[in-house]
Design a protein that fits this description.
551 residues; alpha/beta; 5-stranded parallel sheet; 4-stranded antiparallel sheet; 13 strands; disordered N terminus
Length: 551
């Protein structure tokens, strides 16, 4: 490991290029566009150079992610600005534009390829530019200009297109001063590192760290190509498979470009020599009966007089590219070569294509055919649902944590007397030391009745029939009302249990009450947390609302 990791950025050519473009954006004339695109292959030092220039110019720097949506990008920009993101997407956009205008600082968006393939993200960045007229530097891979070309309104607002510069010998020398302190790296070894890097600054940096570590182990003060010898260097290529031997031992010829150069040119009229891997009589042609050979079936013809509609493109992909079967199964039952991460055909067919939205009936509607007010309503609903889910998860975590803390405190309090509390049921009130706040854990049982309720109802009916012989029918209705169901089809336990408070000494009535008491069952128990705050200096408390209606 390199103990002398560089604490500064080497002044390579990419750093100067980005600094020039940023200076051009900040001091552009009125009426000129304020967008610049810095593009190049991966590993060419774009992010490092952009970060260094952003620190110099006090620019806001945000690195995009593949999973970000519109609101995620706006929230990350506001967090970079030091502003707490609160509100809908339109409100967040206005806050960003106001901050860019007030601060007059540029905005750098790295990994912009993730946004270049989505129309809504492109339009959102364009709204940021149009609303602030600030300087925006977009950084991405080498195909970023081609991705932006199809967005004419965005492409036309770019002031400068800056390609990343490959690493040079001078850049390698500056990198060696940073990554290899106190070690002299010869020019021939630096030239070899630059040649193997193919323009990548990252590969040169990795090799310089390896050179520095090797020099510390070997005790070298200077390293050249001859002294380095045949030690491996990082080239970015994947390692060879094991069991193939050394790279210079028995190289495999290309199956199509192979030619026996030792035999000289072929005689006119004679066939060229056979490929070594294709020679031999033991190879037989593949047949359609082999498990690895699948015959593509032709789609059924349309009825006479009707035209057959082509399948959608996502279904056509699944049909034209079926999963092949493994040809080497000894039992003859080859399994599909599909991993768990690959989508199934049903998932591929049900995917919503880009530029469409699915309505309530499952139909795919193009975005251009949807009214702006409907899109705004859909965005508002999604925003509210997203915030509601986050709030619901926070309340669930708060409830679980409070119950656990109260239970642990009760056990801690019981340990003072060597007592053990069995179960978490029971109402508990916890009051602060100053008596200002109070927390209650309340447990409520839900009561229900079993089949004994029918026997109690029959005995009560007999009593009422004997007592009200010849009386009006309204008296019987008063008793029957207690056994009626509510709107949800449930019996009111409160009205039935209120019959037990009647002081009636009839024997049959007492048996009915006994049957009623025996039929009561506890269906479930629900626990609640109530938080109270004292009202001034009085002994009364008012609840702190934890629901939306009481907040």
């Amino acid at each position: 490991m390199n103990p002398c990791a560089p604490n500064r950025i080497a002044a390579i050519s990419s750093l100067d290029l980005v600094a020039v473009v940023m200076e051009k954006l900040l001091h552009r004339q009125d009426g000129l566009p304020g967008l610049a695109v810095y593009y190049g292959p991966s590993g060419w030092g774009k992010t490092t150079a952009t970060l260094a220039v952003a620190n110099r110019t006090r620019a806001y720097y945000v690195q995009l992610r593949s999973s970000w949506a519109r609101k995620d990008l706006l929230e990350k920009i506001l967090q970079e600005m030091g502003i707490r993101p609160v509100g809908r997407t339109t409100q967040l956009l206005d806050q960003i534009c106001e901050q860019l205008v007030a601060s007059r600082r540029p905005l750098v968006l790295d990994e912009f390829d993730y946004a270049a393939t989505r129309d809504v993200m492109i339009e959102l960045v364009r709204d940021i530019y149009e609303g602030s007229q600030s300087s925006l530097l977009l950084v991405g891979e080498e195909r970023l200009p081609h991705k932006l070309k199809r967005h004419e309104r965005f492409h036309g607002r770019v002031l400068s297109w800056l390609p990343a510069a490959p690493v040079s010998h001078d850049d390698a020398r500056r990198l060696a001063d940073s990554y290899c302190p106190d070690i002299r790296v010869a020019d021939d070894l630096l030239a070899q590192l630059v040649a193997l890097a193919h323009g990548s600054v990252r590969r040169v940096s990795v090799n310089l760290v390896n050179v520095y570590d090797t020099a510390l182990v070997e005790g070298w003060d200077e390293v050249d190509r001859a002294q380095w010898g045949e030690r491996p260097l990082y080239t970015g290529d994947a390692p060879r498979r094991r069991g193939r031997g050394r790279p210079d031992e028995h190289p495999e010829p290309h199956p199509r470009r192979w030619r026996d150069r030792t035999a000289g040119p072929a005689e006119p009229g004679t066939a060229p020599p056979a490929h070594p891997r294709r020679a031999g009589a033991g190879r037989r042609p593949r047949r359609r009966t082999d498990p690895g050979c699948r015959r593509r079936r032709r789609p059924a013809a349309a009825p006479a007089g009707q035209l057959r509609d082509p399948p959608p493109y996502w279904h056509r992909r699944a049909v034209q590219h079926p999963y092949r079967r493994l040809p080497g199964d000894l039992a003859g039952n080859a399994h599909p070569r599909r991993t768990d991460n690959e989508p199934t055909t049903e998932q591929t067919m049900n995917a919503i294509p880009h530029g469409y939205k699915q309505d309530a009936k499952g139909r795919l509607i193009p975005l251009e055919a949807i009214k702006p007010i409907d899109l705004a309503r859909d965005e508002l609903v999604d925003d509210i649902v997203e915030r509601a889910r986050a709030l619901s998860q926070a309340l669930a975590a708060f409830k679980a944590g409070v119950f656990a803390d109260i239970g642990a405190f009760i056990e801690l309090s019981a340990e003072r007397y060597d007592a053990r509390v069995g179960g978490a049921k029971g109402n508990v009130s916890l009051v602060g030391f100053d008596g200002r706040y109070k927390v209650q854990r309340a447990v409520q049982d839900t009561l229900t009745f079993d089949e004994g309720l029918q026997a109690a109802k029959a005995l009560i009916d007999e009593c009422v029939h004997e007592w009200t012989a010849g009386a009006r029918s309204e008296i019987r209705a008063l008793i029957n009302d207690a056994f009626n169901v509510d709107k949800e089809g449930k019996i009111s336990t409160g009205r039935i249990l209120s019959l037990r408070r009647l002081d009636i000494h009839d024997t049959k009535w007492q048996r009915a009450m006994d049957a009623l008491n025996d039929s009561v069952r506890v269906q479930c128990s629900r626990s609640y947390i109530r938080v109270y705050e004292r009202i001034g200096d009085s002994d009364q408390y008012r609840p702190i609302p934890l629901d939306i209606a009481g907040a």
